[in-house]
Design brief:
globular; alpha/beta; 17% helix; two-stranded parallel sheet; Beta Polymerase, domain 2; 5-stranded mixed β-sheet
């Protein structure tokens, strides 16, 4: 439900972004806008610099794998069959507005989104995290390296198709006196919990 405050912000966004605004939605009491990956840098600059918006602070940036969410990701269905997205959480300190921006990468095999580090420098480590965990490549990033996983790590552990056990395991080898990598020794298996429900459990009848 749109409050007067959100309606005013939505109108300011429509006026400022024009045809670069794919869609606008209300989620959890905040506005979410969808924009194309090719427009994220220009849109970010407008969100920061337009005097009707002034989103001066990037609070957070994260990746998402939508591959198991279904196809209908937007009101206009512009993002059908897109798997990887970047979500930006913005704050205008001056106007006390919050905004969520969603960009879906066009290529599922090689997801690419432009870096916004020139707009909000704090995005540097956030983008490296999304690159590390989801394999999303941020073009024009000044130093796009893994930031959480180990040296030589293979794959992107937050992708839905990444095995829960991983691809390798590590242990300390006393003879070599160092940490070594080896194939995973855990056998993958599906565990179904046994649920026992007593008859009339929870009834309040005396």
């Amino acid at each position: 439900m749109l409050t007067t405050r959100l309606e005013n912000l939505a109108e300011s966004l429509r006026n400022a972004l024009g045809d670069k605004l794919v869609s606008i939605q209300v989620r959890y009491g905040e506005l979410t806008i969808n924009v194309l990956a090719e427009d994220i840098f220009a849109v970010s600059k407008m969100l920061r610099d337009k005097n009707t918006l002034t989103f001066d602070t990037l609070i957070d940036l994260c990746g998402i794998d939508y591959s198991t969410y279904g196809d209908d990701l937007s009101e206009k269905n512009n993002f059908k069959n897109r798997h990887f997205a970047v979500i930006y959480h913005l704050l205008s300190v001056d106007r006390n507005h919050r905004l969520r921006v969603r960009v879906l990468a066009e290529n599922n095999d090689f997801p690419v989104v432009d870096s916004i580090t020139d707009i909000w420098p704090v995005a540097n480590w956030f983008e490296r995290e999304a690159f590390d965990l989801y394999g999303i490549v941020f073009t024009y990033h000044p130093d796009l390296r893994r930031i959480l996983t180990d040296y030589g790590f293979i794959g992107n552990p937050f992708r839905k198709d990444f095995p829960i056990t991983g691809h390798v395991e590590m242990r300390y080898d006393a003879e070599q006196k160092r940490v070594v990598y080896q194939p995973v020794t855990i056998e993958p298996r599906e565990i179904t919990p046994l649920v026992i429900r007593e008859e009339n459990y929870g009834n309040c009848e005396s």
